[in-house]
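Narrative summary of target 7.
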Amino acid sequence: MDAKQLSNISVIAISILAAFLVALWIGIVFWVLRDIRSRSRDPFVVILAGLVALVLPIFGVVIYRILRPTQTIEEKYLSALEEETLIQEIERRPKCPGCGREVQADWILCPACHTKIMKKCVKCGNVLELPWMLCPYCGSPQQKTSPSDTIR
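Modeled conformation, tokenized:
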């Protein structure tokens, strides 16, 4: 190979490398813009992240990865939804009217304060709420509860 061919090959190799680096740089900018849009709705933050990736080709993406929000908008939404579901489940658990402690749905008495919470059906034995005058399981009428049914 003579010097001219070697020079042409080196120019071609440098051109291919430069094209690759420019394509990588543009790809990084597009990735940063796409990623920040999934993490923030603030247009200022989107523009700032794009500019950091555009102005600082390699270091910009490193800076962006350090400073970007940890969760996407969808992850934040799902986390808030899960938290709300847990709160609703905790609030839905039955509490003793006497002492306010959590009780099981099928308990008849509160083990802490001995307040009557439920009653049993006189015919089938299923657990019923105190005001129910008719069993929803077997249809039999129930006895009226008296104030002396509350044990303390």
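DSSP finds four helices and two strands in the chain.
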